[in-house]
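[#protein-structures] MJ: dropping SseB protein N-terminal domain-containing protein here for a structure pass
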Amino acid sequence: MQDNATGATAPNVAYVPSRPVGSGDSEATLELRETGNGDLALLAFTSRDKLAECCGRRQSCIGVRPEQVDELRSRSGAAVVLWDPAPTSDQRDDS
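AK: finished. structure tokens for SseB protein N-terminal domain-containing protein:
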């Protein structure tokens, strides 16, 4: 899928951090983060590598179509979506 405005290729899957999901689970619990100004943010990543870089290699996630991310933001109560945010040490799960 190509973005006509920039010519860049958009991802086919967005990866959103979640609590671990079992094979019989029909819903996922998304992990939200607090921004510097206190808003809740839903993180979304364009690749599993970028998710691991930010959140750690053991971070669970769900894969969704990119056009579904804003709906997830709304349903989760997050104020914003942060795409491919820079890593911070307090967000990583490498244990």
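MJ: nice. The chain has a mean pLDDT of 86.
AK: one more thing. The chain is about 15% helix and 20% strand.
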